[in-house]
Specification:
Length: 337
């Protein structure tokens, strides 16, 4: 199969703490990765929002986005995403409008409808009793208004967001948000790295129901996948044992720091857990550059064309993580030839 098109490549970071690290060191690693991706001409670098997670430092997402913007030159930096049920749209618009003022044309606002945490924490975050999940479409519209021209706004305005047109992206891990992104004519980002089950259906819904808008005249599809690319398949699989431990830690309800890789993954997991990890590996881009290129070609053949691949990489050694993202960039370049 010969892919005809031009896929862009980007990255997502949850700002995890590696085993033995402090919070500050995890944030420093986040900045180092941003600088590395900037030098590799990655399209964008997104930071997720999670709360009450002792192994992640991504709770104050907008602060981390600004910090990354300050330490990079070209790459777009944004949210993957801001979980809108946790925030008043006015505050979000003010924050991202301020960042757009400081760093023009480099700020993205990815929006999710889930709270990004457990319900007790969500109650502590939100000003109401979880109505934000149901008000997501209306709140997206509010944000579009806040970032739009002043003559189309009411008395309450999100200065300095007025007229800044910060680009919005709808995030999804099921089919729900695919309908919304299509109806509003906005770019759609699917979280294939942790919820691949409905990915194919969601992508089809978005493409088939897409309505052109002032933002887009045709669908723009971003897919986020786990990506671990190394010199050989064997090395990539060894590095991916860290990813397996992340998966199983979540399944066990244990929020542990990112663990070093191991040559004996089966000794750490039950047979059922090992099977689950292998299944997740099948939904990920793990291997040498040639293997990952073949996997990506197969993905496109099965799921359809994508406009952008967003990689997320749980690798314990940061130099190996840099190398993986460099090799992923090489894969996309070869695919686009």
């Amino acid at each position: 199969m010969k892919f005809v098109g031009n896929i862009k490549v980007s990255a997502l970071n949850l700002v995890p703490i590696r085993e033995g690290q402090s919070d500050k060191e995890a944030i420093e690693d986040m900045v180092s990765l941003a600088q590395e991706l900037d030098s590799l001409n990655y399209e964008r670098y997104w930071i997720a929002e999670h709360h009450n997670a002792p192994n992640l430092v991504s709770s104050a997402t907008s602060l981390l986005i600004q910090h990354a913007l300050e330490h990079t030159h070209r790459i777009k930096v944004g949210s993957g995403g801001i979980m809108l049920p946790n925030h008043a749209p006015l505050i979000v618009a003010e924050q991202f409008g301020t960042m757009e003022t400081l760093f023009p044309d480099r700020v993205d606002l990815g929006l999710g409808r889930a709270p990004g945490t457990d319900m007790m924490t969500a109650s502590a975050l939100r000003r109401d009793q979880h109505n934000g999940v149901y008000e997501f479409p209306e709140e997206v519209e509010q944000l579009q208004t806040y970032f739009g021209p002043g003559n189309k706004q009411a008395y309450v305005r999100a200065y300095p967001a007025v007229g800044k047109n910060v680009p919005l992206y709808i995030l999804g891990s099921s089919t729900d948000s695919a309908h919304l992104a299509a109806r509003k004519g906005l770019p759609y980002v699917f979280a294939g790295h942790f919820a691949p089950q409905q990915m194919k259906e969601a992508m089809q819904i978005y493409k088939e129901l897409f309505e052109p808008s002032d933002v887009l005249d045709q669908p723009y599809m971003i897919v986020c996948l786990n990506a671990i690319v190394a010199e050989t398949d064997e090395e990539a699989e060894y590095l991916a044992s860290t990813l397996a431990q992340v998966f199983i830690g979540i399944a066990r309800g244990r929020m542990q720091p990112v663990q070093p890789p191991t040559n004996d993954l089966q000794a750490l997991l039950t047979p059922r857990e090992y099977e689950m990890a292998q299944q997740r590996f099948n939904d990920s881009l793990i291997g040498s550059e040639e293997t990952v290129k073949e996997k990506l070609e197969s993905f496109i053949e099965e799921y359809g064309d994508i406009d952008e691949l967003m990689g997320i990489s749980y690798i314990y050694d940061q130099d190996k993580q840099f190398e993986s993202f460099k090799r992923l960039h090489n894969v996309i370049e070869k695919l686009n030839q």
